[in-house]
Design goal:
Shape of chain A: globular
Oligomer: homotrimer
Number of strands of chain A: 24
Chain lengths: 655, 655, 655
């Protein structure tokens, strides 16, 4: 495992650089990311470059045999660029340029902006590409789907629509635009959806606009990638991914990039309520699944977060070491901590780094140094891969469609995935989270939660997967819509009815209400035992056709009128089977269901894991490493007899 | 009772039309509303009309002897209209055109828009008016007071002000504009109040602006009515009313229309807390009171509501049948359900109809079919009228003035009316809710809650009504202001002091605090018994002049300093009496007070109704029908011995 | 003590003026404030003046020997001014003119506006300055820091920056603008921070912009002062101060004004929760501290507040008399009540005066009359001064910096000061709240809470103060930043480390979490006894160098990992000592700490005060008056044996 830091030399007096580098070397930092945000220092006025300072920085690290990640600084155009070319500023949903601060928001489709980007990238890459210590490039920073409404983007969106649909009439047909007289009679009428309540807009339009916005940022990243490749043919290129308001399609975003990197900020305070979902492992598995290969952490939690919000509590002892190790366990061979030292100025000054403002090594620094030592012990495991038999499908369109049209109060797309991820994790079964269109060949169990938007390819994969002996898990809200975000006029789960062997007779969006759930006499009931089971948020009332019923709505709770009706079913299909979970359950019901499914499928699992203890296995040739992580505030004893302190990672190598 | 549906043929493949019509015929649907929102299909580009599809639709229903309501489609101008004539877009309080979605918001005063309306209405009515199956026209859809700030509306408002006041000086005098140097020196300075916190604006101006906005929409509806009447002299015309943010004056709105229709969406989950007010009956009585005649439901709850908010729970069993029957019991002879089938596209796709997206008849469809059958049993009762002896006064200006200046935390105008409505309903006494200026001749008890804005006509009615032997109920906040929304400089209740026989010495807006209330030794106390009585939200400290005290503030609670002072009084006046309720009470205190009042007035009532059971009587010639409705989630036994299931309606005909 | 009222003759029919004045005379009102907001009556159209009405008003009061405060009416320009000169309207953070209502918001830097101001001030002062009854001028009304973004202010801000820094490069150096490429390359790029989330902007910029905005309003007040002084060389001038969203620097604001006046609106309902801080005394002490001399109340609570919010409960009996007396006890020799009679029109009609809308003297009027009588008893105490030995430092930059960057959830700057003020008040020790840069010579104990922004002068004062034998109290978050709002790269408390004798090893922003606190075996522990002590919001983990530990974090609560570490310390320094409070404590811990500090410093105090009873001492020559005020809803017995009713003030004169 390789440990690095994010470093902003331009923010510090140059007399500090060598001390910083020496300290890094001393504790075992192997990689430093530089250049992000430093555009104004590289190009103080248009066309005038100053790289002398960066030359010195690169030299300092090169001298110490510390590797470098070089960033394109395009996320923060200099003030002169905004002043000279105001057209590069992003236009918000209200049609006005968004307020720029120091971290200005720019329209990534704007031609002028792209020209400025190309020039600074050329200058940068041309200068440093032949330094062998440069081991990767990072493009820009934490990009989002480009929800810009500038004139250029309006035209861009229109062109995107023209390419997809050909004629306004074809749009009308796809969107079924007769509703509310929404038919377009000419291309001029086709525009990005404007502000106000976005839910009042046509969901076909908003979903397509988000697809455009995602394509737009993907195009921008590809543009930068090509700029870099003009001058450097080999060094790997990435961008640092994150979770944001307007998420692009991750799979598209990284399609042409060499690896995925992710900004990982676990909570410093875990929720105490057992039913509150948090899962750092989930996000790591989602990131690994983007390219289905190992990935990097480009920014890792190092201290209290804050700045535009009040400061959070500081990371508890063990978190800095433990969360980096957890990322490693999930496939991140390289973890860079954000940031070496806390900024002393600017809006982000309370987003704490390894070192505090005072530059005095403290508790977190010592823990980080221990991490660096620990990391060196597991060099051999670098490149080892994770091979799971269970996958959860994630779809970018699903997430956006769900967000724009809440199905029931309190019901969120990612939470539905996390419930399953949590359940399999709790029994030590590794899970991949993959693009819904990905190949399912390597898996034995595939969870496909809330496939709201139907995709023919996904459907075919799932049918074939079950035919060939796999276990599929479908849920409520699957098969609801076609790819244009229009409802399919067919009994739910529409195209999935044959696979699931059930028909949804009616549904009830109970939101914050609850109903009890009765497990039928089955393996599941055995596993679940005396714990309570609940139906929440959403209730499909199921009529099994070929499926057998696994759980029914009980006689108590919110909705007496469908007491006794099927809520969860299982259908034998081909060589495999399809489970259908028609409601949202409490966590323990998911746990026992997961155990039932792995037992029925014949996937191995553990039933001796204390709550919050996570197991991951990485393999390389004949070797394997079992990682056991205690992601709780309490010490816990595991099957080996070892007692894991809070946030402690234990690794058990095997051959 | 006649049952219909709202149908959008333009949203469905034409191959489905006949099946839909056949099904409707089969289960007994008698009326179909069409045309709403279909402008783009009637006039695909400006001046080019396409009615072939609608001809066929009309023919299909005509063939099956199903009646039609034809709508003007003006609520949703086609996209070409917005593109070609952007001036028709409404301007928001911030001075910018509001974002148009598919359901665009248009300025109803705009001349271009009116010209477009006139042409499509002419084309529509000219074509279909001689089909005898067309039994009504609906103008537009769910209109609101026209709070538009476009240049045309700014001038329109100024002209409205000029007409009302003559000179800026007269405005200054009426508004007492010296406050904060608000005096106008010329008409140019007179403009609609702009955005930000509307409460910072002069309340005289905001109230007048709302009156203008109401007049503006009334004028628009009248404009459409006249357009229709040019081509069809006889078929009744309405518009579908609703409750919205900016309510127009309902009485003005329907003055020239032939009947009232209302969009009725009862809650699918009733609040469990006894003190939470909900009342579907209240809204129905308010609608019936607009023209003091029977009315229609133009849209009736058929399924879960949702789309821009998360979906609600689906209507519980019995609701679809029961709530339509409840509307009938309150004077709606015709009830059209929204909508035949749930939309499969567009922003409203989760506002569910009788049929789900799947087009498969389900539980709600079956219940609706039962309703159709049930409705046919009570044909004879159509046209039967409701004759109540109790009226509650509603005033459009009251509601707006209350909304713009909250009197106390948690105190809302409509809630004050509902508290009384609930109380009389709970003892089986029917209530009319009527315009505050309406004649009171037919009543024996008139409730006039919070007459904040004084109207001379209302005042005279109430004095005469009491003189002639009626019982008047006045409350806190009556007589506060003149018609310009300025306070009257006189001891409260100012012009009502003589009638009430009390003077308000002081008031205390206690908001969320509470105080106990002690009933004096009186009939009321007898009725109320051991239940607790509370004063909440607002406390007038009363000094009776000629009135006798019925209740005083007790020794416990928030405001010791007026313990023992009068809170509720009764004054003999002329042949009648005037009650004055100086505070807001808990529900049971209203219930017992209502009983006391009907006993003292000699109006018959029931004291054997279980909570939530409502009784309504309709009469026609010598015949009468007593409707008993169980508006709760539990079964309840009534005086007849019958047990009513949740939402069950029983009708007891008499001769 | 002198009692007055705020009166708006222009709002009332002139036939009422004499009755009003007679009533005032009768009950003992000595001063009347007039003219505020009356611009449109003084200058109905530009350049045309009408003072006849005001002449009569002035004459009426002059005849009755009632003094007058004359206001410049500039807060509310007439409608003609906004219409004719729209450039005088303030521009909001979104770049658009803010919506004007009747109380329009004007840009105080605008040249046209200033010209209009100058002319009306000249007309007013020239006319009335030689009437000896005019005893003071009030400039404008409740001014705020001028957060305007109009073109003139943009240039004004730029000029302010140029004057402060000289070159853009100097700004870059001060702000350390390399972060996020924020470097300015020319002055054109320097602009006020725009809207959106202000926390995303550079905190160096936002703090400087607020300083500019404060300077801008200070400049405007000085401009008006000079206008007045042209025509009246002697009559004292003030402006009425308040607490608002964008507070100017109070000390700058009043530097050239003759006295401070304050608008004092105590809560009419006190929070019941003991831990909820409220303190009217705090605000009064803060006002007295601005010029460290006695002050006026220009507007005093007279009735329920409301208008743009729901009405509050009416002032409880005793409040009108008691809160005016409390102001007197804290140095306000003159208290004017807002307002004589409640406005009957305009947006402020529910902000109640002494008389209600009805003009009928009621309970509050009678209480006010009693106050007038009571006030006459204590004429002799006018001018008596308060000499305290304890001071709390307040800094304008601290407050703004804290507000823009919340340190921890729930932690607010003023609350930190109030906690200490409350503690000393609870033991009868008077406190001055003074500018952080003020001289400390007269004090023996100085509390300097959260000195986030470091000021060299303040630092020097505190070191010298301790050296000379004073007791200093420092807290967490002191020494964090330099004057440019950038963090100091040094171990906390940075420049205060030597004084405090502690180093902060780490901090933990625990926000809403809690931790127990253990007092060490010390005087404090003795005083505190068995009460619980808690650490909340923020925890510094302290490493004492020369200080001794007074309290440590206990073994229970949120953050086990620093259990046992020092939380509060005391350091002997020079002849004095410095306490360091590294956390935020519960109220009783502050109470006992305050007692410990005064005991250790040898300042006298009382330990016999019931909760909520406040003691103040005023002295004049050999005489002194001890004021005892019961600021609770309950009667309380004090050491004299007297029982004080709720809000009762007792005065004990001594010689």
């Amino acid at each position: 495992m390789r440990i690095g830091v994010d470093y902003y030399p331009e923010q510090w007096d140059e007399t500090m650089w060598e001390q910083d580098a020496d300290r890094m070397k001393e504790i075992g930092v192997e990689i430093v990311r530089v250049g992000e945000f430093a555009w104004s220092r590289m190009e103080p006025t248009e066309g005038v470059y100053d790289f002398a300072w960066l030359d010195r920085v690169v030299q300092i690290f090169t001298d110490r045999e510390i590797d470098l990640v070089l960033c394109t600084p395009t996320c923060t155009p200099p003030q002169w660029a905004f002043e000279k070319y105001p057209e590069i500023i992003q236009v918000g949903a209200d049609g006005a340029k968004i307020p720029i601060g120091i971290r200005g928001h720019r329209c990534v489709t704007n031609a002028t902006y792209r020209r400025l980007c190309e020039k600074i990238i050329q200058a940068l890459v041309e200068r440093y590409h032949d330094n062998p210590r440069i081991i990767a490039y990072q493009i820009d920073n934490e990009v989002e789907a480009n929800h810009c409404r500038c004139e250029e983007c309006t035209q861009g969106f229109r062109a995107w629509m023209q390419k997809k649909y050909g004629t306004p009439q074809a749009v009308n047909a796809a969107y079924r635009n007769t509703v509310w007289s929404g038919e377009y009679s000419s291309w001029e009428e086709v525009k990005p959806p404007t502000a106000g309540v976005l839910q009042w807009q046509n969901p076909s339009l908003t979903l397509d606009y988000n697809r455009y916005a995602s394509d737009s940022i993907v195009d921008y990243i590809e543009f930068q990638r090509q700029c870099i490749r003009k001058w450097d043919a080999t060094v790997p290129i990435t961008t640092n991914n994150w979770f944001c308001e307007n998420m692009p399609d991750f799979y598209d975003l990284f399609e042409h990039l060499d690896f995925v990197s992710y900004d990982n900020y676990p909570l410093s305070v875990l929720p105490e309520d057992e039913e509150s979902l948090y899962s750092h492992a989930f996000h790591l598995d989602l990131m690994r699944g983007i390219k289905q290969q190992n990935f990097w952490i480009m920014e890792q939690l190092s201290g209290a977060m804050g700045s535009w919000m009040p400061m959070s509590p500081t990371p508890r002892p063990g978190m800095i070491r433990g969360y980096a190790a957890q990322a490693f366990a999930h496939g991140a061979d390289t973890v860079l901590h954000f940031r070496w030292r806390t900024a002393c100025s600017g809006a982000e000054m309370y987003w704490h780094g390894i070192l505090d403002h005072n530059n005095v090594p403290g508790r977190r620094y010592r823990e980080f140094a221990e991490l660096c030592s620990w990391a060196k012990k597991w060099k051999e495991a670098e490149g080892a891969v994770i091979q799971n038999e269970v996958a959860i499908l994630y779809g970018s369109a699903q997430e956006y469609a769900f967000k724009l049209q809440h199905q029931a109060e309190g019901m969120y797309y990612l939470e539905q995935l996390k419930l399953f991820h949590d359940a399999f994790t709790s029994i030590g079964v590794g899970v991949d989270i993959i693009n819904e269109t990905a190949s399912l060949e390597q898996y034995r169990i595939v969870i496909a939660p809330t496939l709201l938007i139907t995709n023919e390819e996904v459907k075919d994969h799932l049918y074939h997967f079950a035919e060939d002996g796999g276990s599929v898990v479908l849920t409520n809200r699957c098969g609801v819509k076609d790819s244009y975000n229009c409802c399919i006029m067919q009994a739910l789960p529409t195209v999935y009815e044959e696979l699931a062997g059930v028909r949804v007779e009616e549904y009830d969006a109970i939101g914050s209400h609850e109903h009890d759930l009765q497990l039928c006499d089955s393996a599941w009931k055995q596993v679940h035992g005396e714990q309570s089971a609940k139906a929440m948020q959403w209730c499909d009332i199921l009529a099994p056709t070929t499926a057998k019923t696994m759980a029914v709505y009980g006689p108590k709770g919110f909705s007496l009128f469908y007491g006794g009706r099927a809520a969860v079913t299982c259908n034998e299909y081909g060589e495999g089977r399809a489970y259908y979970v028609g409601t949202v359950m409490n966590r323990s019901a998911y746990h026992s269901l997961a155990q039932t499914i792995v037992e029925e499928t014949g996937v191995s699992y553990r039933n001796d894991l204390p709550p919050g203890v996570e197991v991951t296995v990485r393999k390389k040739g004949q070797k394997s490493w079992t990682f056991v992580f205690n992601n709780t505030m309490h010490s816990q004893k595991i099957w080996t007899g070892d007692v894991l302190q809070p946030f402690e990672m234990q690794v058990y190598p095997e051959k």
